[in-house]
Amino acid sequence: STALQGAFFSEIVEANEEVGQYLTSTIERSDDGRIDSDLSMHIPSFEGMEKRRVASNLFPAERVEEEPESDQEDPLLVDAIESISSPTFSHSEKSERLLRRCPSWNLLEQSETTRKNFSMQTPVVSIRLGGRACTLSLRSCVVNQNATPFQQILSWLADRGDYFAAASLALDLLRDANTLRHLWRSFEKIDVDDEATKMRGLLDGVKPLDETAGDDMLKTLADMTVACLTKGGYAMSSTLNLFLSEDQHYDATRATIMLGAATAKMLSGDENVVAETLGNSYNAMSNEVIISTPIKDLVWPVRCLLQVGVARNNLKDVLILLNATVPDELRRRRRTSSDGSGAISSMELCKELVSLILGSEPDSAALLLNLVDEQSHAPYWESLEHETQLSLATIRIAGTTSLLLEDEVRTWVLTQLQSSIHSEGAAGAQMIPNEWLMEIVSACLESCGCDVDALRQDTSGGSQQTDDEWGILKFSRSVSRTRNILLASSGPLGIDYDIVVSALLLLEKRGEPFCELECSVSTQNLLGACCYAAGRRSTNEPKFALDGSVLMRLCHAAGNIQAGGHLIGGEDGLVLQCINILVHSVGMDVGEAEAFLVGEGVLSTLSEFPATNE
Questions:
Q1: Which of 144, 269, 345, 395 fits a disulfide with 329 by CB distance 3.0 to 4.6 angstroms?
Q2: Is 249 helix (H, G, I), strand (E, B) or coil?
Q3: Distance between CA atoms of 129 and 589, rounded to whole angstroms?
Q4: What tens digit of pLDDT does each residue of 173-199 get?
């Protein structure tokens, strides 16, 4: 036998068309001179591995080409979803049912069989002395006469809970140097300053899989890699995410099912199950004692699950499985399963799940809204409670309000705003919170590239010119500046003034500012500027056409004559603004003000002035 110079596994030999391994233990001297006889991992020789990798991943000729998305249902996925369709199943029951359909996961669970196979084996013990390696004794670790299949080696490591070693071995066999390097770095096994001297040892001298390895073997190995990294928990989730995005050999459906099962465990609410799924390394990664697991850490399987959907162009199937696995958490409603105890999942969890989905790819919002609730048989948005709808509508992904770009959600938002304006102050009317109105104004403006911070700033310096006794010049400059900020919005789409104007009308009617911070621009001035800019050309066009007639009726319902004047523009708009001044400053009613302007010939006097853009 060949001494392996500190390798954790000795070699892989090919015999009888099967791939197997010898397993070895190593003895190394510690810094204090003592002999450490524990099984230990060494840094892999990534440089040599890169040379073995031709093009990318494994064998270019064996790469699975990305197939176009098909509407044909995957029978394995359909069977998995049907197996967890009962609303009474607990999260643990759902997880168990899903994992029964994952052979690679079950291979890692064959602990008793694996122990029997290795119980009578004698380890090879090698000692490294400088650059020399001396073998003290030999062992015959063989199954099927000449070799031990890698499935049993991985299962043995999984039984010991050494998912790091198992994942490292599997990645080396797949010759995935990039992912293997990421794994070792995430566990701080690589000295970045002296990386070249430490990237050696793991499987040094082991015969890798070659071109004779069939597709089924590669798929099995890749699936077991996914299973090992999933069992490794949160600490290996970033490596798993990378592997899922680059590898072309794992079965997308089985990876989806495995991660769906992990999601069910993580969101089960059972502290023991959650701790097991997070992995033993989770608490060790933090310098502080973790009392309550952060939401972002709880949803690590969902991030990986969505990565499968993006990498393999099957996000629709991924979301359908997620909808069947955690329907209550996805909607923030009371659990109906046996392990829920009637608990309601948190709004933060629901928003985090939806945010992850919306951030996965551009079409994800439409796919999310197409999900059907198993209980009510209603589309996703209709299956949500009012409070949840309000919260999700303003979610921003990369600064964009993705859901407000969907007809269904936008129509719902406009309906809520319009109903509130018409019923404001009526007994029993459902009142939209001021905070939500401020948030949706800010979200709509910022998502379109509007500089909202500039709207809040006071550029006048607090001084007033001596020739501006009434503050008319200061007001005029403020109006022009606000309009210019709106018209200069540089986002991919123009401002949705239907939503912004409706929300501002409500805030002004209640006498509330348009943001919680102190602002130099009043709600009425911003509303006037928005009405002025609505319908006019800007550097970008909105996705939805302005419904001017509806907005005019809303201005009338809100009693905001000034906003209506800005919206109409021109001479008629100026007349409305004059009427507004007479009503609020002189005390006339609207009829008297209109009769005064028309009957006294004021309109003919106004027509003598040259037209301006103001």
A1: 345
A2: coil
A3: 101
A4: 888 889 988 998 888 876 644 443 434
221-225, 392-396, 420-424 — which is least confidently predicted? 420-424
Question: Taking Cα atoms as reference points, which of 65, 328, 369, 62 lies closest to residue 219?
Answer: 62
- Please measure the distance between the N-terminal and C-terminal CA atoms of the chain and give it in whole angstroms: 92
Say how far apart CA 373 and CA 427 lie, in whole Å. Answer: 33
Using an 8 Å Cβ cutoff, are 515 and 559 in contact?
no
Tell me the per-residue pLDDT of 500-543, one tens digit each, with 9 for 90 and over. Answer: 999 999 999 999 999 887 777 889 999 999 998 887 777 778 88
Site of tokens 């973790």: 290
Who contacts 177 (Cβ-Cβ below 8 Å, separation ≥6)?
44, 46, 49, 50, 53
Q: What's the CA gap between 556 and 564, in Å, rounded?
A: 7
pLDDT value, residue 107: 84
> Residue 250, Cβ neighbours under 10 Å: how many?
27
Alpha-carbon span 350 to 384, nearest angstrom = 11
Strand partners, 128: 133
The pLDDT confidence band at residue 66, using thresholds 50, 70 and 90, is very low
Helix residue ranges, H only, 359-471:
364-369, 386-393, 407-423, 434-447, 452-456
Token pair of 184, please? 């070792």
pLDDT tens for residues 355-387? 999 999 999 999 999 999 988 899 999 999 999
Q: How far apart are CA 582 and CA 96, in angstroms?
A: 73
CA distances from 481 to 124, 453, 528 (A): 80, 13, 12
Cα 491 to Cα 487: distance, rounded to the nearest angstrom: 11
Alpha-carbon distances, residue 21 vs 119, 159, 207 (angstroms): 16, 17, 9
How far apart CA 577 and CA 559 sit, in angstroms, is 13
CB 414 within 8 A of CB 499: yes
- Coil vs helix vs strand at 413: helix
Report whether 133 contacts 2 (CB < 8 A): no
Residue 113 in tokens? 């069989």
Q: Which pLDDT score is estimated for 182?
A: 92
Which candidate, 567, 570, 545, places its Cα nearest to that of 558? Answer: 567
Surface-to-core class of residue 491, CB atoms within 10 Å of its CB (0-12 exposed, 13-18 middle, 19+ buried): middle
Rounded CA-CA distance 438/434 in Å is 6
* CA pair distance 268, 283, nearest whole angstrom: 19
